[in-house]
Amino acid sequence: MTSHRHHPHQLLGRSEQELAWFQRRSLLQAAALWVASGGWAAAHAQGRSNIVELRGDVLRNGEPLTAQHTITANDRIETGPGSTAVFTVGNSAFMVRQNSRVALESDTPTAVKALRVLSGAVASVWGKGADRQIVLPTATAGIRGTGVYAEVFPDQALRGYFCNCYGTVDLVAGSESLVSQSSYHQAFWAEPTPRNGRLLTPAGAINHTDEELEFLAGLVNQRTAWQVAGRKGVKDGRGQMDYSAPPSNAGSAGSAGSGSGSGSGAEPSPPPAPAPAAPSPAPASRARPASPYGPDY
Question: For position 50, what pLDDT does the model report?
């Protein structure tokens, strides 16, 4: 079982209790039933709801949402205080935190092409596919199969936070762009105005946990990058796994010497973490789509 002591996260305006939603017994039971019943494909074929859990006051397109409803890829979701929504659409899973407004956009009701985070926060896991985006007021992320956490802070001039928990993401803010390749939480601030001359600045891992992403991945029969690798990194926002060298026995240590001192027993240095991808020109295909919610979005 993963210990938060070894892989800490920082909180900014949220509580530990809010991040522990996946531990509720009722939700664990609902998730087990969801997977055993065939997940989203079976629910869609049988006309059942794709909502795994609904708590508190949640609106869909301005109307109260119930657990019997179905969320499509063209719906707007709004959560009130103390409210959350956990659901899947196609091969993607979403958890909308309290006090959030998001819009799902697509040309088909069964696969989300864009997730627009207007305020609040969303954790999501996406199956492989092309031409999908997460749109914040201050940045746009072109995503492939990945797990991400995104948050918008209305009290900070709609400052955006984006963590590529694992996978590959094309991130664009204004004229800046970069490619994030992450195996363990690479995070950025998307600034409303340049900070030290940049709109995209490094960030730590805040307001989300490994277990949240693991839970969402399980809903759509996926595993996170660290589950696949069987190890984790340091949760500092850089996006890399641990690269510790495995213990070596004395014999192999002595025979591995270069001749400058055989039998020294020195372990080989761990390989360096891959360097972050260099910034690249903003791709035209990743330009921010026009928002139906006004120029601020």
Answer: 94
User: Reduced to 3 states, what is the DSSP secondary structure of residue 22?
Assistant: helix
In this prediction, residue 26 has a pLDDT band, given cuts at 50, 70 and 90, of confident
Compute the residue count for the chain.
297
At position 164, the amino acid (one-letter code) is N
What is the CA angle 277-283-289, rounded to 5?
A: 125
Task: Determine the topology of domain 16-242+273-286 in CATH.
Answer: Jelly Rolls (2.60.120)
The pTM assigned to this predicted structure is 0.78
Q: How many helices (DSSP H) and strands (DSSP E) are in the chain?
A: 6, 16
Give the residue carrying structure tokens 């192999």: 252
Smallest Cα–Cα separation from 152: which of 4, 296, 294, 30? Answer: 296
Residues 64-114 have pLDDT tens digits of 999 999 999 999 999 999 999 999 999 999 999 999 999 999 998 889 999
Q: Roughly what angle, to the nearest 10 degrees, separates helices 25-36 and 210-219?
A: 30
How far apart CA 164 and CA 141 sit, in angstroms, is 10
CA distance 64 to 275: 47
| Domain boundary assignment for the chain | 16-242+273-286
